[in-house]
Amino acid sequence: MAYRYPQRYVSFADLAVEMTADKNRALTVLKQLNQTIDWNPINRLLEQFYPIGKHEEGGKAYPPLLLFKCLLLQKWFQIPSDPDLESQINDRISFKSFLGLPMDQA
């Protein structure tokens, strides 16, 4: 099993979001957080204690930093459940941007 990294490319959806990004307060705040926090030490620590995804057999796992950021969003925005979090991630531009997920994919 390996990690499932989202394909990162610029789509028309990404360009449309960038045109109105300055008017989206949540997007602005989460972008600032992403730029301010050095995620590398956190990622190294998470990978050290997250054994899933280090083997080639089985399905691909989400990277631990992505899952950690999902938990942060869940706490910060008081999202009550994992299914609700998934729906919010698919619905909110600011969440997808914070997580580094492409805008045009679920």
Quick structural gist:
This protein is mainly α. 58% of the residues lie in helices and 0% in strands. The model has no long low-confidence stretch (mean pLDDT 83).
Characterize the structure shown.
This protein starts with 11 loop residues before the first helix and ends in a 7-residue tail after the last helix. The longest helix has 13 residues. The protein is mainly alpha-helical and 106 residues long. α2 packs parallel to α6 and α5 packs across α6. The mean pLDDT is 83.
Which key phrases capture this entry?
about 110 residues; mainly alpha; about 0% strand
Fraction of residues in H or I helices: 55-70%
Radius of gyration: 15 Å
- The percent range for strand residues is under 5%
Instruction: Report the end-to-end length measured between terminal Cα atoms.
Output: 22 Å
The helix count comes to 6
String of helices and strands: HHHHHH
Q: How many beta-strand elements?
A: 0
Largest sheet: none
| Average pLDDT level | 83
Q: Which structural class should the secondary elements be placed in?
A: mainly alpha
Shape: globular
Regions with pLDDT < 50 over 5+ consecutive residues? none
Topology:
Elements: H1 12-20, H2 25-36, H3 39-49, H4 64-76, H5 82-91, H6 93-99
Helix pairs in contact: 2-6, 5-6
